[in-house]
Specification:
By secondary structure, the protein is of the alpha+beta class. The protein has 13 helices and 6 strands. 47% of the residues lie in helices and 8% in strands.
Length: 335
């Protein structure tokens, strides 16, 4: 039997000992990304095409895949495959077109097993529980069906130098937006580049267009970028804490932290511990669901939460963790 196993882990594992003709490829293979895109479409369009919770979890798993294993195995070996699949945090595509969990239960196929479960790393599940406890302490409630964010062994992080350059671009845009909205003459890109050496190369296409012809109306979303900036400076260790999102960030302190680092001429060399960054991502993912649900119902966001702050933090954290491999302008924040 030919098995396609899709693992979300960054490290390459030895193929199952009972497997024959084994091969593995990672994201450095240019053919894997379009293959996974086709797999996502297969999951999305299977059967009646309705997006169930199980199908959503499976689709997100495929989007996080980093290793694709292909091997042959006989029926006897198949029964002993589960420990390896759990270790690899993998789902399998069988020759009959079904997708199965590590226990061999059908996640997607003609007859779906209601007991089938998309696998998640142990640390990711524990992180979800920790976030749920924080939310419950604030009397905030989110569905138990919301999946965890990636585990530490699944995470793909931007390099510190890229994060530092992005932080400078965000500050430049926020400063320009603030001036335009106040009716003041904004600093030119050349003037900003004297203090922010990553400019203008660090600007995204949308940011570059904003500098070229953006007006006060176009400045509105860029004015919120102080919140994204605060997250990235926290990730770089230049800001000590992320306060509970009930107020906007202390802008003067955030600006001072970045300029002090820029004036030193040193590029931050490390990010915070991956587990701490994932804790922030998981929490803000769930907080964003709370804010969006309130918006959907036309109600105030509970707990005095500021929806704009949560959105910017979720956006920046998704970019930091290379969500869907999107560049800054194209980052999505699904909940």
């Amino acid at each position: 039997m030919l098995i396609n196993a899709y693992s979300t882990l960054g490290q390459v594992l030895a193929p199952p000992p009972q497997a024959a003709s084994a091969a593995v490829r990672g994201l450095d293979d240019p053919a894997l990304a379009p293959h996974l895109g086709g797999f996502v479409n297969y999951v999305r369009g299977h059967g009646d095409g309705q997006m169930t919770a199980a199908r959503y979890h499976l689709m997100r798993h495929v989007q996080r895949v980093r290793q694709h294993y292909l091997f042959e195995i006989d029926d006897a070996g198949l029964e002993r495959l589960q420990p390896w699949l759990l270790q690899a945090n993998a789902v399998c595509f069988f020759e009959d077109g079904s997708v199965r969990d590590p226990a061999g239960r059908v996640l997607l196929g003609e007859t779906v097993d209601p007991q089938a479960q998309v696998p998640y790393p142990i640390d990711a599940q524990a992180r979800r529980e920790g976030s749920q406890q924080q939310l419950q302490a604030q009397q905030l409630h989110v569905p138990a069906s919301l999946p965890p964010v990636p585990g530490a062994d699944e995470a793909q992080l931007r390099e510190p130098a890229e994060v530092w350059a992005r932080a400078q671009a965000l500050l430049a845009c926020a400063l320009r937006a603030e001036a335009l909205q106040a009716g003041d003459p904004p600093l030119t890109l050349a003037e900003l580049a004297e203090r922010l050496p990553a400019l203008p190369a660090a600007l995204s296409p949308a940011e570059a267009a904003f500098f070229e012809h953006g007006d006060a109306e176009a400045a509105v979303p860029f004015g919120w970028r102080y919140e994204s900036l605060a997250v990235l400076l926290w990730a770089l260790g230049l800001v000590d804490t992320l306060a509970w999102p009930q107020a906007t960030c202390p802008v003067p302190d955030v600006v001072a932290a970045l300029l002090q680092q820029a004036d030193s001429g040193n590029t931050p060399a490390t990010l915070r511990d991956t587990a701490a960054l994932l804790d922030a991502l998981d929490l803000h993912y769930r907080l964003h669901w709370v804010a969006r649900e309130a918006q959907r119902q036309g109600a105030p966001v509970p707990g005095a939460l500021v929806g704009g702050v949560i959105y910017e933090r979720h956006y920046a954290l998704n970019w930091l963790f290379c969500f869907e491999q999107a560049e800054w302008d194209d980052v999505d924040t699904p909940t």
